[in-house]
Amino acid sequence: MLLVLGLLAAAPLEAQLPPSPSDLISGQELIYRGRFGAAHLYFTELMAERPREAAPAALAASALIWWAEARDEETWLADSVDALLEAAVARGRLAADSAITGAQKAEALFWLGTALGYRARQAELRGAFWRAAQDAKAMRQALDEAVLLDSTCVDCLLGIAVYEYALARAGAVARLVARIIGLGGGDAERALAMMRRVADEGLYGRTEARWVYANALLREGERDAALREEGRRLIGELALQFPENPAFTRAAQSPAPEPR
Questions:
Q1: Which tens digit of pLDDT belongs to each residue from 188-215?
Q2: Which domains does the chain have, with CATH numbers?
């Protein structure tokens, strides 16, 4: 970790301009269109050009996570994802600590929170609930601070919403770990409202929020048929918009579970 931070601190000043929103969104579009390899290459090249920025590293990891989802192999290339997220977290913390303005710090904290959220997801997939809970708590702290600095950070709400929803619907082991580590409980209705807002108003998180929100509605639809139908409608829209993304098309074609 010290070596990583040392290399970041030594990066030339001319490389420190952050990527523009359009640069990041262009790469994200590659992900959602199912061009995962191209997206991963795009963001790894952007990582090299912007060695202090967390966003390219977090989104390079996102490309691999989506690729694994499309292959229906959630642990595929997990070591590469872990390395990218480690870099993103290191970069995000350094950027937050060295930010000059509140806006710069809020942006750094958003990407730090994004990386921590992905890292918590990866840990949970492996059954490492303690590590997942620690990263989830750090994610929530980073995003809460970002919102305090910039109340217009709608994208920040997605990580907070996932955190709230996961706590509200967690299994017994995850709930036990959450209580031990001091995460508290969650509010599913509030989480769903935040997901919906990001899906409508988000900049970087809009498409991912639509996907997360739709899947949350399907889960809620096990008890409420109307929510299940809304979730399936949203997934159908994603499959129509991005027909080359297997994650969307497979979900759209899968049979709907019956409500309990």
A1: 899 999 999 999 999 999 999 999 999 9
A2: 19-148 (1.25.40.10), 154-245 (no CATH)
| CB within 8 Å of 172: residues ≥ 6 apart | none
Amino acid type, 4: V
106-143 confidence digits (pLDDT tens): 999 999 999 999 999 999 898 888 898 899 999 999 99
Among 216, 222, 129, residue whose Cα is nearest residue 176:
129
Cβ atoms within 10 Å of 100's Cβ, excluding its own: 7
**Which residue's structure tokens are 């299940």?**
228
Amino acid at 17: L
Distance CA 215, CA 176 (A): 24
Q: Is the pTM of this model over 0.85?
A: yes
Q: How far apart are CA 33 and CA 27, in angstroms?
A: 10
Contact criterion met (CB below 8 Å) for 222 and 228: yes
Torsion angle, alpha carbons of 45, 47, 49, 50, to 10? 160
